[in-house]
Amino acid sequence: MKRLLVTIALGATIVSTQAAAQAPNGERGRWAQDMTRAQAQQIADGMFQRFDLNHDGTVTWAEAEQARAQMGIGSERAEKLIDRVFGDAQSLTLQQFEAQALARFDRDDLNHDGTVTVAERQRARAQMKAERGAQPKAERGAVNSTQNPGQ
Predict the structure, then answer these.
(1) Is residue 1 a contact partner of residue 84, using CB atoms and an 8 Å limit?
(2) Higher model confidence: residue 137 or residue 111?
(3) pTM, full prediction
């Protein structure tokens, strides 16, 4: 589940239409700022709306791929993101999508004050990378596909 939630945050970064100017700490755009839980929810909702091309309240894997292509995002990173977000599921509802994003926010809010600071986000990212590095690659893929609540 943790990896799935991280991918949603990465997806928001990838599809963000805000300027991606580099901050001194290496963060980009809105991720270079502290974020409240309400802001995280708004970002998730906005991202979901951009992916829900037929506006039926469900994002399918095919819609996500089509939206990615329309936005001109062709990186391997974006492909992996979509695969991780969906896992074995073919679709996600707004509620599932939002729940994943807010669970990641709650995990990253280390002091549980309702705001994830840049420092908290960096510590969470470093911890995730350390955990991912300690886990064999084949096992990571199995964990990602079994932890998707949208199955």
Answers:
(1) no
(2) 111
(3) 0.65
Query: What is the SS3 string spanning the chain?
Result: CHHHHHHHHHHHHHHCCCCCCECCCCCEHHHHCCEEHHHHHHHHHHHHHHHCCCCCCEEEHHHHHHHHHHCCCCCHHHHHHHHHHHCCCCEEEHHHHHHHHHHHHHHHCCCCCCEECHHHHHHHHHHHHHHHHHCCHHHHHHHHHHCCCCC
Amino acid letter for position 119:
A
Task: Say yes or no to pLDDT of 67 above 90.
Answer: no
Does residue 74 contact residue 128 with C-beta atoms inside 8 Å?
A: no
Q: Would you tell me the crossing angle of helices 76-86 and 61-70 to the nearest 10 degrees?
A: 160
